[in-house]
Design goal:
single chain; mainly beta; Pnp Oxidase, Chain A; five-stranded antiparallel sheet; two-stranded antiparallel sheet; 3 helices; 9 strands; 41% strand; binds flavin mononucleotide
Length: 138
């Protein structure tokens, strides 16, 4: 079971539905995911720091202590995440000492109403809204 943590995740396109992230060329996990040809993005919640630490360590049994189910495409979908996004690899471009990977979204859903886990200046943290949301203003 393969997994890695990426902070470099972004949505890209609605038509077709594309997301992107940037794996380091030194990653040992990315080439193995590339061979599979698909992956499931798991947006970790602010109670999943332990999961983040386990997935960002090097090793072969990253999912040993992480509760998960197979996604529609058979990739690990972690219990309790904010959301999950099943993707096929759409394109991979040279990006200096990283790769730029585009994924085409095949399925997605919101899993739990929690807030995402954040990482800033070497520390984990939580999202704290500064103002009422745009939805409340409209
Ligand atoms: C908060 C956080 C963000 C990270 N973001 C990225 C990233 O965007 N790209 C990347 O290649 N590695 C990133 N990493 C490192 C990988 O998750 C992980 O350490 C590395 O892939 C493990 O080595 P492996 O790929 O050889 O298994 C990040 C790690 C952490 C903790």
């Amino acid at each position: 079971m393969l997994g890695m943590v990426v902070g470099s995740f972004t949505s890209v396109s609605l038509d077709p539905p594309l997301i992107a992230f940037f794996p380091d060329r030194s990653s040992t996990t990315w080439p193995r995911i590339a061979k599979v040809g698909r992956f499931c993005v798991n947006v970790l919640s602010d109670s999943q720091e332990r999961v983040c630490r386990a997935l960002s360590a090097r090793g072969d049994d990253k999912f040993g202590a992480i509760a998960h189910q197979p996604s529609f495409s058979g990739q690990p979908r972690i219990d309790g995440v904010v959301a999950w996004i099943d993707c096929d690899i759409y394109a991979v471009h040279d990006a200096g000492d990283h790769w730029c990977v585009f994924g085409q979204v095949t399925a997605l859903d919101i899993e739990s109403p929690s807030n995402p886990l954040l990482f800033f200046k070497g520390s984990y943290g939580q999202f704290a809204p500064l103002a009422i949301s745009l939805e409340d203003v409209a």
